[in-house]
Amino acid sequence: MTSVIHATAKVGAGTTFGEFCVIGPNVTLGEGCKLGNHVVIHADTVVGNHVRIDDHASLGKVPMKAANSATTKEQELPPLTVGDVSIVGTGVVLYRGAVIDSKVLMADLSTVRENVTVGRGTIVGRGVTIENFCSVGRYCKLESECYLCAYSTLEDRVFVAPGVVTSNDNFVGRTQERFKHFKGVTVKKGGRIGAGSVTLPGVTIHEDGLVAAGSTVTRDVPARTVVVGKPAKVWREVPVEQLLENQGWVDA
Fold first, then answer.
1. For residues 37-73, b (16+ Cβ closer than 10 Å) or e, as one string?
2. What is the pLDDT tens value at each position of the chain, 252 positions in all?
3. Can you give the pTM of this predicted structure?
4. Cα–Cα distance for residue pair 157/31, rounded to 1 Å
5. Phi then psi dihedrals of residue 186, to 5 deg
6. Which are the contacts of 84, defined by CB distance < 8 A and separation ≥ 6?
7. How many Å apart are CA 49 and CA 241, to the nearest integer?
8. 82, 90, 103, 215: most buried by Cβ count inside 10 Å?
């Protein structure tokens, strides 16, 4: 046995380990989980049933705090929880204090910070970063290398394309005044954000709003409306056949 499993860890029936895994104190692993090589699961983490965790993933990591950090707080965090039938890719880092629902895919090299919730069936793409104090709804898709800034909220069925950047600081890191005004972005149910776009602090993209690729969003996006440009301006209504209500999707 080349893995180290703490005596207080609870491991469900049928769970298997690769080489050189480290399972910390009071960890709970459900039934039928499959761990790759060099997986580290930190103290108190709770993993559901039939969860796949690939090589070099780190679960339950305690946050680091720089001396001048604006968003990382000194706090007692609850254990990380990962729901049933989720997949954790290679090199993924999930922080203590995050709550991952069932059937979530976290692709290789993605990071989910503390005080974050990710809803059932959501896809977190390769290299995605979800900063702290964020809420991501059910059945969202966050595509490769997109960045969700702290204090952001995504409701259900939101789509975020590759390379999207969001921001929460209009002061760009200078003056003490900035600490009073941090505000992330809000994307209402069915909102979509196109590839390579930038959304500025405090912006709300309303239900079924669509941001065109490469746009810079400086103000709220009306419901069922396409915006485009730098700065983004209203272009037209979202075609009826593209509206979320007309997709026939059923939550499962």
1. ebbbbbbbbbbbbbbbbbbbbbbbbebeeeeeeebbe
2. 689 999 999 999 999 999 999 999 999 999 999 999 999 999 999 999 999 999 999 999 999 877 666 666 678 999 999 999 999 999 999 999 999 999 999 999 999 999 999 999 999 999 999 999 999 999 999 999 999 999 999 999 999 999 999 999 988 888 888 888 889 999 999 999 999 999 999 999 999 999 999 999 999 999 999 999 999 999 999 999 999 999 999 887
3. 0.94
4. 29
5. -125, 130
6. 30, 48, 49, 50, 51, 102, 103
7. 38
8. 82
Here the tokens at position 221 are: 């996006």
Rounded CA separation 210/21 (Å): 43
List of residues 6+ apart from 59 with CB closer than 8 A? 39, 40, 41, 42, 45, 47, 53, 80, 82, 88, 94
Among 67, 42, 52, 68, smallest CA distance to 18 is for 52
CB 126 within 8 A of CB 147: no
Name the token pair of 153: 């909220």
Q: Which of 174, 205, 212 is nearest to 190 (CA)?
A: 205
Nearest to 182 by CA among 133, 138, 109: 133
Q: In what order do the strands lie in the sheet with 165-166?
A: 4-5, 22-23, 40-41, 58-61, 93-95, 111-112, 129-130, 147-148, 165-166, 198-199, 216-217
